[in-house]
Design brief:
Elements lengths: L2 E5 L4 H12 L3 E6 L15 E5 L5 H9 L3 E4 L6 H6 L1 H22 L2 E7 L28 H20 L3 E6 L2 E2 L11 H10 L4 E4 L5 E2 L2 E2 H12 L7 E5 L5 E2 H12 L5 E4 L1 H5 L14 H7 L7 H17 L2
Parallel strand pairs: 1-2, 1-4, 2-3, 4-5, 5-6, 6-11, 7-10, 8-13
Antiparallel strand pairs: 9-12
Length: 323
């Protein structure tokens, strides 16, 4: 069994990854700045340890990576509101933090499994996007692009460290992962916004005209792909899209959420500028080609949108009831 460090291990994706790896019998360290609320149920489990610290703390990261065989690097700022309002912090954590990980992991000869994002494709109109698709980004004066740019630069460093230092790596590009523990329902992400409004009988506020499209992948499916790639030698040196091919508009997502949850919230439309400010630019379509993960890893998402929404809604209803 391996010793695995999961940065961002107390976050949404990270907490589920820690659970999965522990269940497989690995030694797991969750490294996170948060108070660890999402991993409280793991604290006393054999083989698990929680370190509350920043990935910008080089000496702390060095201690933990020295003990690890594999580093699953998921710590990042990924909330649209934050990377529009706090571009400097976003780039420091998402790029400088990644560089700390790569430098130390390369020295230790540990494998790095890096969480990137669908944002690296920018607004390329050639849908669906394969992993080698062109990147089409907006102007550097639009803060909205700092997140995708930082992640893309980190990807370049993965390839560079592999080329010059022999660092084994895997890259994951996530397309709207959702499910229980997503966040506090107060972020700038679309599903938490819609769900919070529905649960409080408030109007669902759709940004823009609601015709922009996305795909969503349920957390258990996404984690399955992550773990498969960690231990599959065919995945080394590869980037993988993690998502589904089911494209739907934000208006249709709101309608589906209402249908599945039996919610009565009306739908209203607000300009992006009112929510995110002037330094934001939307992407009209974001759809992955997921054939590579199926071919190399034998993976594809199996949870339907309706099933995933039912589980997510039930989780948050229970959270509200227990407060």
């Amino acid at each position: 069994m391996a010793s695995i460090l999961v940065t961002g291990g107390a976050g949404f994706l990270g907490s589920f990854i820690c659970e999965k790896l522990l269940a497989m019998g690995h030694q797991v360290v969750a490294y996170d700045m948060s108070n660890g609320e999402k991993i409280e149920h793991l604290i006393d489990k054999p083989g698990f340890r929680f370190v509350q610290d920043s990935i910008l703390n080089f000496s702390s990261m060095e201690r933990e990576i020295d003990r690890a065989d594999i580093v699953v690097h998921f710590a990042a700022i990924a909330d649209p509101k934050r990377y529009v309002q706090e571009p400097l912090v976003t780039m420091e954590i998402d790029l400088q933090g990644a560089l700390n990980v790569f430098k130390l992991a390369s020295k230790k000869k540990a494998k790095v499994c890096f969480a990137s994002t669908s944002e690296i494709y920018g607004k390329n109109p050639a849908i669906p996007w394969k992993e080698d698709a062109e990147r089409v980004l907006g102007s550097t004066h639009i803060n909205r692009w700092c997140y995708g740019t930082a992640k893309a630069a980190a990807e370049h460093y993965c390839y560079a460290y592999a080329h010059q230092e022999g660092m084994p790596f895997v890259i994951y590009r996530f397309f709207n992962v959702y499910g229980p523990r997503l966040d506090d329902l107060g972020s700038g992400r679309v599903l938490p916004i819609f769900l919070k409004q529905c649960l409080h009988d408030e109007p669902i506020t759709i940004h823009g005209d609601g015709l922009q499209t996305r795909t969503l992948v349920y957390i258990e499916d996404a984690v399955d792909c992550v773990v498969r790639a960690i231990f599959n030698e065919k995945a080394v040196g590869q980037a993988f899209n993690i998502g589904t091919s089911q494209e739907l508009s934000m208006k249709d997502l709101a309608l589906k959420l209402k249908e599945v949850g039996g919610f009565k919230s009306e739908i209203v439309y607000v300009p992006h500028k009112e929510v995110f400010g002037a330094s934001y630019e939307d992407v009209p379509r974001r759809v992955p080609d997921v054939s590579k993960a199926k071919k190399l890893l034998g993976w594809e998402a199996t949870t339907t949108l309706e099933e995933g929404l039912k589980k997510t809604i039930a989780y948050y209803k229970e959270q509200i009831a227990n407060r």
